[in-house]
């Protein structure tokens, strides 16, 4: 099993790219086909999926995958050629589809998050409490700037940025997601997921702008993906130092506003630098590709596109995760994953 295929390639300075050899993918697929997806009834499934993945991937590949969380310089990881559902339904334009309709994709997401030692969550008020979010061009939301939108460009942002970042205190709200993972279900070669490495952006900004962005003088509005409680939170900094002194960010191009002229000017400088597109890292996810990135360490964006509406449009399955369950408040006592926002 130890071969040159297991060697990771660094696609960009901050992205770890791993390809699963056919023999590994095939063995993992066989195991997952025997695994019922019933995470509400089987509370041990998350642990079982980790054990299974470890066995199938082997120690070298497992360690390479885990390095993503351990290495503060790595901000994104793509694992190509993961197991896939053999009978993929049409792209769910309503945004609602039972996980049992795509069990392998959902099990791959949960297995890899479990292997990484991170914890999947869904935020109250978003996605109807369903753990898996379908990133699709929804027929009713084509003009929304969200994971259900299509025609409008969805500009640079961090997801759920009004919530406390990793080094900020949590009180009655749950923490901001530390990770977003995606499984490619259907690819549209026209549409990339764009990632921007925060460190490169901060390094290119004037020191005075970094200082302004670090002050608690910004108001952040909840993103379009929240159905209700679209509040605004004032008095937040855009840039924050993390626990290892790394930069963290809560910028959301559409939903961040300066509370004074200096703050607004710093935001404009940041926007202009990003819109130069010189920091863009485009990623095309093929069916069976898994991508994960550190939500507060990168900005992500998607260009606008015209959906085909033929049942075969671009489709990714997204899953949020956090490092520490002590930093979330469960929304309901009977629910394993839904947290208060
Ligand atoms: Fe997003």
UniProtKB/TrEMBL annotation:
InterPro entries: Clavaminate_syn-like (IPR014503), TauD-like_sf (IPR042098), TauD/TfdA-like (IPR003819). Fe cation binds at residue 300. The keyword Chloroplast does not apply. The keyword Transferase does not apply. Keywords: Iron, Metal-binding, Oxidoreductase. Residues 262-319 form the TauD/TfdA-like domain. GO terms for molecular function: 2-oxoglutarate-dependent dioxygenase activity; iron ion binding. Belongs to the clavaminate synthase family. This is TauD/TfdA-like domain-containing protein. It comes from Pseudomonas brassicae.
């Amino acid at each position: 099993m130890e071969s040159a295929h297991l060697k990771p390639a660094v696609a960009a300075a901050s992205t770890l790219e791993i390809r699963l050899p056919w023999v590994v993918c095939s063995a993992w697929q066989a195991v997952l086909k025997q695994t019922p997806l019933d995470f509400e009834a089987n509370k041990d499934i998350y642990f079982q999926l980790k054990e299974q993945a470890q066995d199938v991937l082997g120690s070298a590949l497992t360690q390479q995958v885990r390095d993503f969380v351990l290495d503060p310089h790595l901000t994104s990881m793509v694992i190509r050629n993961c197991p896939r559902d053999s009978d993929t339904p049409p792209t769910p334009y309503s945004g609602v589809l039972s996980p049992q309709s795509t069990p392998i994709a959902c099990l791959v997401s949960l297995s890899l998050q479990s292997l990484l030692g991170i914890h999947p969550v869904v935020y109250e008020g978003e996605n109807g409490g369903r753990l898996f979010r379908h990133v699709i061009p929804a027929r009713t939301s084509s003009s929304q700037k969200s994971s259900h939108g299509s025609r409008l460009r969805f500009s640079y942002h961090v997801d759920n940025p009004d919530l406390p970042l990793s080094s900020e205190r949590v009180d009655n709200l749950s923490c901001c997601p530390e990770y977003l993972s995606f499984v490619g279900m259907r690819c549209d070669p026209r549409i990339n997921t764009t990632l921007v490495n925060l460190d490169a952006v901060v390094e290119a900004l004037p020191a005075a702008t970094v200082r302004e962005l670090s002050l608690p003088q910004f108001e952040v509005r909840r993103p379009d993906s929240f159905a209700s409680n679209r509040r605004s939170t004032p008095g937040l900094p855009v840039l924050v130092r993390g626990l290892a002194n790394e930069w963290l960010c809560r910028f959301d191009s559409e939903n961040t506003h300066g509370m004074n002229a200096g703050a607004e000017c710093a935001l404009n400088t940041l926007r202009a630098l990003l819109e130069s597109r010189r920091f863009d890292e485009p990623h095309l996810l093929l069916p069976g590709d898994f991508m994960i990135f550190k939500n507060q360490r990168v900005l992500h964006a998607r260009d606008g596109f015209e959906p085909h509406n033929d049942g075969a449009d671009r489709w990714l399955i997204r899953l949020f995760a956090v490092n520490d369950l002590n930093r979330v408040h469960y929304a309901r006592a009977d629910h394993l994953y839904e947290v208060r926002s």
